[in-house]
Q: What sequence folds into this?
Protein backbone atom coordinates (compact mmCIF):
# COMPACT_ATOMS: atom_id res chain seq x y z
CA UNK A 1 0.00 0.00 0.00
CA UNK A 2 1.48 3.35 -1.04
CA UNK A 3 1.57 6.33 1.28
CA UNK A 4 -0.15 9.53 0.24
CA UNK A 5 2.43 11.98 -1.23
CA UNK A 6 2.20 14.47 1.67
CA UNK A 7 2.65 11.74 4.29
CA UNK A 8 5.53 10.21 2.30
CA UNK A 9 7.23 13.61 1.97
CA UNK A 10 6.92 14.28 5.70
CA UNK A 11 8.24 10.79 6.51
CA UNK A 12 11.23 11.29 4.16
CA UNK A 13 11.93 14.68 5.74
CA UNK A 14 11.91 13.11 9.20
CA UNK A 15 14.12 10.18 8.14
CA UNK A 16 16.62 12.46 6.40
CA UNK A 17 16.82 14.94 9.28
CA UNK A 18 19.97 14.61 11.35
CA UNK A 19 18.61 14.69 14.89
CA UNK A 20 21.84 13.67 16.59
CA UNK A 21 23.22 16.11 19.13
CA UNK A 22 26.76 15.43 17.90
CA UNK A 23 28.40 13.06 15.42
CA UNK A 24 32.08 12.19 15.07
CA UNK A 25 33.88 13.13 11.88
CA UNK A 26 34.56 10.19 9.53
CA UNK A 27 38.04 8.73 9.96
CA UNK A 28 40.14 8.74 13.15
CA UNK A 29 37.60 10.63 15.26
CA UNK A 30 34.86 8.18 14.32
CA UNK A 31 37.11 5.17 15.04
CA UNK A 32 37.98 6.58 18.46
CA UNK A 33 34.33 7.34 19.25
CA UNK A 34 33.19 3.80 18.49
CA UNK A 35 36.24 2.12 20.01
CA UNK A 36 35.61 -0.55 22.62
CA UNK A 37 39.01 0.03 24.22
CA UNK A 38 39.19 0.82 27.93
CA UNK A 39 41.78 3.56 27.31
CA UNK A 40 41.75 5.58 24.09
CA UNK A 41 44.63 7.82 23.07
CA UNK A 42 43.72 10.47 20.51
CA UNK A 43 46.52 12.76 19.43
CA UNK A 44 47.30 15.15 16.65
CA UNK A 45 47.89 18.71 15.66
CA UNK A 46 45.89 21.71 16.80
CA UNK A 47 42.43 21.74 15.27
CA UNK A 48 42.34 17.97 14.79
CA UNK A 49 39.10 17.45 16.71
CA UNK A 50 40.55 16.16 19.98
CA UNK A 51 38.55 18.36 22.35
CA UNK A 52 35.50 18.00 20.13
CA UNK A 53 35.70 14.22 20.45
CA UNK A 54 35.91 14.50 24.24
CA UNK A 55 32.90 16.82 24.42
CA UNK A 56 30.91 14.66 21.99
CA UNK A 57 31.61 11.49 23.96
CA UNK A 58 30.71 13.20 27.24
CA UNK A 59 27.42 14.49 25.85
CA UNK A 60 26.27 11.44 23.90
CA UNK A 61 27.82 8.22 25.24
CA UNK A 62 28.14 8.76 28.99
CA UNK A 63 25.72 10.09 31.61
CA UNK A 64 28.50 10.88 34.09
CA UNK A 65 31.75 12.29 32.72
CA UNK A 66 34.91 13.82 34.12
CA UNK A 67 37.12 16.11 32.06
CA UNK A 68 40.42 17.24 33.55
CA UNK A 69 43.36 19.40 32.56
CA UNK A 70 46.46 20.35 34.48
CA UNK A 71 45.21 23.94 34.76
CA UNK A 72 41.46 24.17 35.32
CA UNK A 73 41.38 27.67 33.78
CA UNK A 74 42.26 26.02 30.45
CA UNK A 75 38.92 24.19 30.48
CA UNK A 76 37.29 27.38 29.17
CA UNK A 77 37.54 26.09 25.59
CA UNK A 78 35.93 22.81 26.58
CA UNK A 79 33.04 24.66 28.23
CA UNK A 80 32.63 26.84 25.13
CA UNK A 81 32.47 23.78 22.88
CA UNK A 82 29.91 22.07 25.13
CA UNK A 83 27.79 25.24 24.95
CA UNK A 84 28.04 25.26 21.14
CA UNK A 85 27.05 21.61 20.82
CA UNK A 86 24.10 22.01 23.19
CA UNK A 87 23.08 25.34 21.68
CA UNK A 88 21.94 26.58 25.08
CA UNK A 89 24.63 29.09 25.95
CA UNK A 90 25.87 28.58 29.51
CA UNK A 91 22.57 27.08 30.73
CA UNK A 92 23.41 24.10 32.90
CA UNK A 93 26.91 25.32 33.86
CA UNK A 94 27.58 25.75 37.58
CA UNK A 95 30.87 27.63 37.88
CA UNK A 96 31.14 27.22 41.63
CA UNK A 97 30.91 23.42 41.48
CA UNK A 98 32.50 23.26 38.00
CA UNK A 99 29.71 20.95 36.83
CA UNK A 100 27.72 21.04 33.60
CA UNK A 101 24.26 19.51 33.90
CA UNK A 102 22.77 18.73 30.51
CA UNK A 103 19.76 16.71 29.30
CA UNK A 104 21.81 13.49 29.01
CA UNK A 105 23.75 13.74 32.26
CA UNK A 106 26.55 15.57 34.05
CA UNK A 107 30.09 16.63 33.15
CA UNK A 108 32.45 17.40 36.03
CA UNK A 109 35.41 19.62 34.98
CA UNK A 110 38.52 19.88 37.12
CA UNK A 111 42.08 21.10 37.11
CA UNK A 112 44.87 19.01 38.63
CA UNK A 113 47.59 21.56 39.42
CA UNK A 114 48.71 20.11 42.75
CA UNK A 115 49.91 16.78 44.04
CA UNK A 116 46.94 15.25 45.86
CA UNK A 117 44.25 16.85 43.65
CA UNK A 118 43.60 13.46 42.05
CA UNK A 119 42.45 12.06 45.41
CA UNK A 120 39.48 14.46 45.42
CA UNK A 121 38.11 12.46 42.48
CA UNK A 122 38.55 9.07 44.12
CA UNK A 123 35.68 6.64 43.74
CA UNK A 124 33.36 8.89 41.73
CA UNK A 125 31.68 6.76 39.02
CA UNK A 126 32.33 8.55 35.75
CA UNK A 127 31.68 6.48 32.64
CA UNK A 128 34.11 8.74 30.79
CA UNK A 129 37.33 9.95 32.34
CA UNK A 130 38.65 12.53 29.89
CA UNK A 131 42.19 13.89 30.05
CA UNK A 132 42.46 16.95 27.80
CA UNK A 133 46.10 17.65 26.88
CA UNK A 134 47.15 14.49 28.72
CA UNK A 135 50.87 15.13 28.12
CA UNK A 136 50.62 18.09 30.52
CA UNK A 137 48.99 16.01 33.29
CA UNK A 138 51.16 14.12 35.76
CA UNK A 139 51.30 10.42 34.96
CA UNK A 140 50.58 9.53 38.60
CA UNK A 141 47.41 11.67 38.54
CA UNK A 142 46.13 10.06 35.35
CA UNK A 143 46.89 6.51 36.49
CA UNK A 144 45.25 7.10 39.88
CA UNK A 145 42.07 8.50 38.28
CA UNK A 146 41.95 5.70 35.69
CA UNK A 147 42.24 3.21 38.56
CA UNK A 148 38.74 4.30 39.58
CA UNK A 149 37.21 3.74 36.15
CA UNK A 150 33.64 2.60 36.56
CA UNK A 151 30.19 3.66 35.53
CA UNK A 152 27.11 4.02 37.71
CA UNK A 153 25.16 2.48 34.80
CA UNK A 154 26.09 -1.19 34.26
CA UNK A 155 25.07 -0.90 30.59
CA UNK A 156 27.72 1.79 29.96
CA UNK A 157 31.30 0.67 29.32
CA UNK A 158 33.64 2.94 31.28
CA UNK A 159 36.39 4.47 29.18
CA UNK A 160 39.31 6.85 29.54
CA UNK A 161 40.03 9.26 26.68
CA UNK A 162 43.45 10.88 26.58
CA UNK A 163 43.81 13.68 24.05
CA UNK A 164 47.19 15.22 23.36
CA UNK A 165 49.57 17.00 21.08
CA UNK A 166 53.05 15.52 20.77
CA UNK A 167 54.83 15.78 24.15
CA UNK A 168 57.00 18.89 24.55
CA UNK A 169 58.63 17.79 27.82
CA UNK A 170 60.15 14.59 29.12
CA UNK A 171 57.35 14.42 31.73
CA UNK A 172 54.74 14.27 28.95
CA UNK A 173 56.29 11.27 27.22
CA UNK A 174 54.40 8.88 29.49
CA UNK A 175 51.50 8.83 27.01
CA UNK A 176 53.75 7.13 24.45
A:
Amino acid sequence: MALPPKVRAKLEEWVNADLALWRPLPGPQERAYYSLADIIGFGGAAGGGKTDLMCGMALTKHEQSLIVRLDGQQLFGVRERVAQILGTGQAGWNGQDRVWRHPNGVILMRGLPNVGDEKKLQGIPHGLKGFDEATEIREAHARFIMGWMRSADPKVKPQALLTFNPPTTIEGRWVI
Summary: The helical segments are 5-16, 28-33, 50-60, 76-86, 139-146. The radius of gyration is 18 Å. The mean pLDDT is 90. Residues 28 and 42 are 8 Å apart (CA to CA).
